[in-house]
Amino acid sequence: MPIEFHDPRANPSVPARPYALQASMQSAIDIGLLANGFPDSEAFLNEVDHALAAALPNATVKRYNKHGASAPASTELMDTIAEECDVFLSAYGH
Fold it and tell me: CA gyration radius for the chain?
């Protein structure tokens, strides 16, 4: 009897749109990484940090953590990130 696998991906209800924002990677750039507070979100961002450092020698990575998976990031934290960073990534962990 063959084994059947269930594909858990749903058909998207909203069409994908190209992301139009961009940053120049040719000059110095500050990249913010925000851990969402789930277990291993910081560990995952450690790996992202290492990969970015290897790929983008002109980049400075700045780390942030909202310290609570169930709460949104505070306005103060988001203002700080917007002020200090050119590019921003948020990560989920579990």
Answer: 17
